[in-house]
Amino acid sequence: WRQARRSGRGRLTMLLPLLVLAAQAVHVALAPSLAPSPSIRARAASARSALRLALPPEEETGPVLVVGSINIDLYAKLREDRLSFGGSPPVDVMPVKGMTLPAASFVEKLDEAGIGGAAAASDPISLVQSIDGPFVQKTGGKGANAAAAAGQTAACEFIGNLGRASSEANTALLADMQQFGGVNTEGCSELEGPTGTAYILQFEDNDNAIVLVGGANQDWPGLASLLGGNEGSGLRAAIGRSSAVMLQREVPDHVNVAVAQCAAALGKDVFMDVGGTDSPLDPALLPYLGVVAPNESELTFITGVETKGPDGKPELQRVRAAVAALKDSCRAAGNPSVEVLVTFGGEGSLHFGAGWDGAGEAAADGALPLECRMGSFVLGTADGRPVDTTGA
User: Fold this and answer.
1) Beta carbons within 8 Å of 134's beta carbon, 6+ residues apart
2) From CA 126, how far away is CA 138, in angstroms rounded?
3) d(Cα 146, Cα 69) in Å, to the nearest integer?
4) What is the pTM of this model?
5) For residue 129, which of 55, 57, 76, 222 sits 20 to 30 Å off, Cα-Cα?
6) pLDDT tens across the length of the chain (392 residues)
7) In this structure, are residues 132 and 78 in contact, taking their beta carbons and an 8 Å threshold?
8) Which of 1, 24, 11, 22 lies closest to 208, judged by CA?
9) Does residue 380 sit in helix, strand or coil?
């Protein structure tokens, strides 16, 4: 990574491996060199002029900064793709397969399966907390996972919130962050209440669904404080010493907006993993994003364009239409050069470059200009499956 930086290749290209590791949980073959988006610097200059923030100077050799969630992950293996709540008869949870959802959205998605009715809708967190085990507990959260992956390739700093009510678990979470990636967690805060919790529902084909109970992940200072108040000074300093910023959506939208604006003001590239909710992207984020990384379901959430065919599998033309819609939204927000990395679980990924417009002659493998396929390596492990190196 550092050798490539010295050779003059762009930061967007150099950090794509970290984003893929964080977003896809499989080993991938990385894209060839891609030119950095020139509009990043233009947007940075504009943002600096508009915000007029007293921010630290840029440091080219700084760590990757991840701002986001850290969770107590509870893994439950499903039987026949069904789940029980508090000893209730098992219900089919296939409608949420492959999704990461907050508790309320999880209940809405499964309403057609007859879960809980009005009582469940009024208290979705209690319903989720009644999920029957047994569970295996691990460290997780999209922010923490991204930081652990990034820390194994480059220096990484993580800023997130923990809850004092989970103090024993917090010690284990932070120890994992140190063990898996040597991540600097000095900027983390411990607040009242519990640490966030994620229920990882593992299907028999090893795919999963993730249900989130936000906890401390949802407790942040307001936008004005993050942008200019004392409460946000540590965060702004961390952005100033970083080389790039990685965000996810398991924290309030205004946190990501504040970080993205500050990063743009300092010329830092911003990577957005859109997982964590089924809501559209906050329009206030769109001018500042360098790379947006959804899976095929999340791409539908943020664009409204269906990416899957009648058989439930993603179709290339549908994915392209959704990417075009996302790029149109970013272009309308003054960001014509956003890059998009769509992940497909074990099927690899597809990168759409800054200048991609869906036009041009397809190559022999069907890829259009500025499309780069990133497939899974054939692994030499005993069972042919990846070995977890993130502590997740």
Assistant:
1) 76
2) 21
3) 10
4) 0.77
5) 222
6) 223 322 333 444 555 555 555 544 322 222 222 233 344 334 434 443 443 343 444 444 799 999 999 999 999 999 888 988 888 888 888 888 888 888 988 888 877 656 555 445 578 888 888 899 999 989 899 999 999 989 988 899 999 999 999 998 999 999 999 988 899 999 999 999 999 999 999 998 888 999 999 999 999 999 999 999 999 999 999 999 999 999 999 999 999 999 999 999 999 999 999 988 888 999 999 999 999 999 999 999 999 999 999 998 999 999 999 999 999 999 999 999 999 999 998 788 999 999 999 999 998 888 999 999 876 556 666 776 666 665 54
7) no
8) 24
9) coil
End-to-end CA distance of the chain: 23
3-state secondary structure of 159: strand
Structure tokens at 362: 């397809």
- The phi, psi pair for 258, rounded to 5°, reads -60, -45
What is the Cα–Cα distance from 60 to 314, expressed in whole angstroms? 39
Cα(288)–Cα(261) distance, rounded to whole angstroms? 7
Residue with tokens 């936008």: 223
User: Which of 256, 252, 248, 300 is CA-nearest to residue 278?
Assistant: 300
What DSSP string describes 252-293?
-HHHHHHHHHHHHHTT-EEEEE-TT-SSPPPGGGGGG-SEEE
Q: How many CB atoms lie within 10 A of CB 228?
A: 18
What backbone phi and psi angles, to 5 degrees, belong to 79? -110, 120
Alpha helices in the chain (DSSP H): 2-6, 11-24, 39-51, 103-109, 117-122, 124-129, 142-151, 167-179, 223-228, 233-241, 253-265, 296-303, 316-332
* CA 209 – CA 152 distance, rounded (Å): 26
Strand partners, 71: 140, 196
Cα–Cα distance measured from residue 12 to residue 36, given in angstroms and rounded to the nearest whole number: 6
φ/ψ of residue 93, rounded to 5: -110, 20
Residue 347 DSSP symbol: G
